[in-house]
Specification:
Blueprint lengths: L1 H19 L1 H4 L7 H5 L7 H15 L9 H16 L1 H10 L13 H9 L16 H4 L5 H11 L5 E6 L4 H17 L5 E6 L4 H7 L6 E6 L2 E4 L6 H11 L5 E3 L5 H6 L1 H4 L3 E6 L6 H9 L5 E6 L6 H6 L8 E5 L8 E4 L5 H9 L12 H7 L11 E7 L6 H12 L6 E7 L4 H8 L8 E7 L5 E6 L8 H16 L6 E4 L11 H21 L3 H36 L8 E3 L17 E6 L5 H6 L6 E7 L4 H12 L8 E7 L4 H10 L8 H7 L11 E5 L4 E5 L15 H7 L1 H14 L12 H10 L5 E2 L14
Parallel strand pairs: 1-2, 5-7, 6-7, 10-11, 15-16, 16-18, 17-18
Antiparallel strand pairs: 1-3, 3-4, 6-8, 8-9, 10-12, 12-13, 13-14, 17-19, 19-20, 20-21
Organism: Carassius auratus (Goldfish)
GO cellular component, one term: endoplasmic reticulum membrane
GO biological process, one term: autophagy
Amino acid sequence: MGGWSMFVTCCVWAILLLALFGDSLASAPEFDPYKVLGVSKHASQDEIKKVYKKLVREWHPDKNKSPGAEDMFIKITKSYEILSNEERRSNYDRFGQMDENQNFARAPQGFRHFHDSFYFDESFFHFPRTSGDFTDSKHHLHYNQYISEVLPDSFKRPYLIKITSEWCFTCIHIEPVWKDTVLELEPLGVGIGVVDIGYERQLANHLGAHRTPSILGLINGKVTFFHYAVVREHLRQFVESLLPQKLVEKVTDNSYLEFLNSWHEENKPRVLMFDVASNIPLLYKLTAFAFKDYVQFGYVDMGLTETSKVVQRFNINTYAPTMLLFKENTDKPADVIQARGMKKQIIDEFVSNNRFLLVPRLVNQKFFDELCPVKQFHRRRKYCVLLVTGEGEQFVSVNEAFFDFASSNTKEVVRFAYVYQKQQQPLCDTLLKKEDTTPPQVILLERRSATGRVLYRTVTDGWNGSDDDKHRLHEQLEILQRDPSYLTHDAMLPELNNEFASMFLIQWINAAYDYLAQFYFDLLYSNWREMMPVLSLIFSALFILFGTVIIQAFSDAGEEKPAKQKATDPPKTAESSPGQESTSSRPPKKNFVEVTELTDITYMSNLVRLKPGHINVVLILTDASKQVLLRKFAKEVYSFSGSQTLHYSFLNVDKHSQWMDSLMESAPDARPSDYLDEEEDTTSDKSDYTGHVLALNGHKKYFCIFRPVFTGEEAECGRWSDEDAAKAGPSRASRSRSSSRQKATTLEIHHKLDRLGLWMERLMEGTLPRHYVPAWPSLDTITPQK
């Protein structure tokens, strides 16, 4: 037993030593990605990508039939996967490992060898690493690759993208279905992508994928999630549902002529696809989507009796799929292909070579760039023959003659096109302004830069479509091909208008419909992580709206209470005794006005230390006029008592006669303009301030003054405040003041405050003159009673 225990102990120690120091004993990686690609360790991503493309073309198994081509191709692909991803490249540089399915920055090398020595890998448990499979490795997507390549390409073909991760058991379960789907859809033109959420977290977040496995579709830059059972047929239907509905039009005996003759309105060639299938094959739909901007597709089901005439009309062989391409001539196809096994490459080449009409109309800048490309120094010159014409009936014969000329002059270096002057007015004005000519005109031009610079020349004597015009145009084209300097004019062309662009309102409606449809789809399948921001915004808006309605309802209810009081009930006036603390800083009640007396005790709190932004409205009175003026004052300011920044007080000049004089001396601009004249005439009389009202801002040290108004017999005297005195002038003000003093004893005292309400409105508006004082006068001295 002792020998066996010693043997087991030695084995355990040997295993531990192997695990801890296995780096020195482990063999080197099976190949070096830098050596495979032939780049240095400091090579940039552009250099790596350039070398990779070159090696892939050289060692692709379909082109290189040598025995080791396939293995070398796999090594090249694996090397590029490592070096093109910054994280995997960093792991390799630091740890020398090529297995991208393990994060070696977190796991020491020794434990990995210990792991491998006991076969603790997925194959031991029959859990193959899906992300390491070659069929997935060539479809791995990186964030930069997605943004620069996949996203723009989604406007030409749909993408099916799988989100996976390591040790995802559900991912392993759907792997056979995924492989079969990829083998079926990729040859048809569907883009395939695989995102490992462990290494491409940024891309997964960008796509909105937060769990594995997830399958999503990408088309026209829009991401749509797959929410059904992962079955091959469901995935195929999902890809078909991503495509627009009316890509391919079903054509019968009754509609084929209308379909072919509509080439003029849409400015596109027409392709008729003949096959025996009730549903349009996915291959045709994908081709139609790829060329949707150039060609209009129609499908004829040869198994229907409603299509027998069109099949006989074009003598179609019913035993093999057939494609006919029509341009301006709808009686005879411009090109035909027929094969039992239609391949995508054959169809794409067939459509691409015929994607323009013989004489297309320039409807946008994209068409112009492709029909009349910019001159390249290493390529042969290409010229564009442009007919500037109109849409009326008088231009029909001219346009047909130009088409006939183009049909008989199909040269590679010359492209024919036409524009409608009304549709492309800026372009036509630029080309015709030097010659001062009107359509129809034929212009020979060559584009020299992508910014719009062209060399051009107008064909002499215009274009009427006669034989002489055709002969003259032919001669000038011959001269141009021999001598490029024949183009004598130079111009900068503006960008062409997009004639097929939909109205802004239609674009907005379509965008809103897509957004609402996506919102409903996400809500239906409880994609709450993505829906939370939208739901939060909606509930926040509803909460704010509900709160506003409730506050407004309570506010309206509070304002209705004073209106229900009887008009005969005068507002109550609360007087505070001289020794009572001021409570004017509190919001006044709705059913009375609170007026406090300004004394030496309340003076500091009601004026000197008044809160910023608050104003104390002070009524000047005497013992004799106290009751009458207070009642009138409360009535005039009652409508303003709801403001929390206004406070109301009164000052008895019989007790503090010197305070008003000190205030007026501190602010000379507050005195009326006739003050000096009055001072000379009545030096023995004291100023009468009864009925004056002051608006005192204790914080900013300024006041506004209201002077009494005499109504009744002297209503024409109006209100005498600071602004009225300034407008009237010295003489008139003096006479009015004198008249007022002479008859003051005959008038009712309460009439002095008749227009206080108008003055209060101007006070609230901030339009009254302000008189500033350096400091407020003290109120310590009480005038003795006589």
